Amino acid sequence: MVFGNVNKLNLLPYIFTNFSNWIMQARVVAEQYPTELGRHEINDQGVFVMLAEAMTEPRENRQSEIHKEYIDIQIILEGEETIGYSNNITDEALALTVLENDVMFFEQVEHEQFVHLKAGDFAVFYPNQAHRPLCATNQPQQVRKAIVKIPVSALD
């Protein structure tokens, strides 16, 4: 997991160059289509952005998830949330290669850490990295976000 701020991408020179480009493209989509939630294609490599709005919830009400085929870059556009993350998943989950809708949910993960994200912040989650999005930081609140979905094949 890597996190940063969209206005300070120069502080992360070690991230994959296209990540910065896709983050900037997602911001443009969010500005151009502020009320059009859902999927928006941003290139011909299968990379797309999901614009979403949701209420955060107490962390015990949220599940962790993993993906196999996609990398997530979750960008907070408005509001704030806390996201849990862990690199510890079961050997059975790690051995799976395909997931229905490319997602598997977990009630519990070991060695979970949490990061607090505000508007402009983002977090990158790679396949097999458990992440628990939409956890309330203090009180539940509305959050607007752009989730860049990057097929692993786009990095070849």
From TrEMBL:
Question: Which InterPro entries does its entry note?
Answer: NanQ/TabA/YiaL (IPR004375), NanQ/TabA/YiaL_sf (IPR037012)
Q: Which GO terms describe its biological process?
A: single-species biofilm formation
Q: Which NCBIfam families match?
A: YhcH/YjgK/YiaL family protein
Name one cellular component (GO) term: cytosol
Q: Which residue spans adopt a coiled-coil conformation according to this UniProt entry? A: none
Q: Per its record, how is this protein called by name? A: YhcH/YjgK/YiaL family protein
